[in-house]
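Recall the central idea of this unit: under ordinary conditions, the amino acid sequence of a chain determines the structure it adopts. In this exercise we apply that idea directly, starting from the sequence alone.
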Amino acid sequence: MSARDAGAKRRAYTGPALFSFGFRPFFLGATLFAGLAVPLWMAAFAHGMGLGPDGDALAWHAHEMIFGFVGAVVAGFLLTAVPNWTGRAPVMGMPLALLFGLWFAGRTAMALPAPGAAGRLVDTLFLIALALTIGREVVAGRNWRNLPVWGLVTLFAAANICWHAEALGALTHSPGIGKRLALAVLTLLMSFIGGRIIPSFTTNWMKKQKLHPEPAPFGRFDQLVLWATIVAMVMWVGWPEAAQTGVMLAVAAALHLGRLLRWQGWRTGSEPLVLILHIAYGWIVVALAILAANVFVPGLFGGASALHALTAGAIGQLTLAVMTRASLGHVGRPLTADRPTVIIYALVFAGAVLRLVLPFTPLGYVLGASIAGTVWAAGFLLFAAHYGPMLAGRRPPTRPASN
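Accordingly, the structure predicted from this sequence is:
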């Protein structure tokens, strides 16, 4: 399909606006889910109530935030980006609604008290379908440059299968491998895609502001960062407590810091829509550094600290940065952060910082985590309230220039 035919197909679409592009249902669904699921988990955990298929509220929270919330954001981003990469028409209408329905069915199945193997199978279908869809589009568009993205989505689907296999007792040789594999894949996705969009968007903004020099373009140093991260993540998935793994995690953290400094994010303070991308990427440095520290001094940080630096910090901030920018751009709004958007960023950043700090204060773990989770979830609920009408509504006939 030519780019002209793809454009004609998009213009000919007359169905619900919500299903006219992948970012619309999945960004809205992801933020509503994050904003509601975190308080639900906190209430269940604080009062000793069962939640999820095994009655384990903590396990349900971990699975649903990784595969439910982040899975929806990944779907929304890729279903929007891949048509731009391939020149093909986006998945829209009934196929998109069915894909979103699979995601929702997975969330429903995982909320049931005892879904058994059948319910867990339902949950695996969404990411499998997403991987097949992305693979089809990349191959049909002969967009071989983005095969690594398809490979990572496929690994993410495999990580979910591993998670369920562990829960059913079919995978016992490496406890927690499903969770570690999923987080490793997400770290690589953020490193790979963030390495494209952050310097690109920063450069575009700096050119408009007539700021020089501009961020360093992708080069051999970036390749070194990606390969070091791949090695570090493979070692962490397979041998999380090995000294060699700690060394490689520390090396990866240092290289990511160098990469971040090359992008000169501190010069973008006047535009939060750009600055947030750099802040989010900085959380990857923090998470890798804490993971490395935990290998050598296990009692220095709690095991949950590194995971929440990665999830609540890096993933939470970068998903918001991408969702706000993509939503504004694709619905025809100016690419600048208004006051509600800045508040959204601030709430999620504060929630991530509090999640690392408060459990180690006299407040205690449950109260500290509850305060942090409430602040973090509020940011996503505000996104749903502020951006929901844009996501569900029609796009204006003209689009302002992007920065």
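The CA atoms of residues 260 and 282 lie 7 Å apart.
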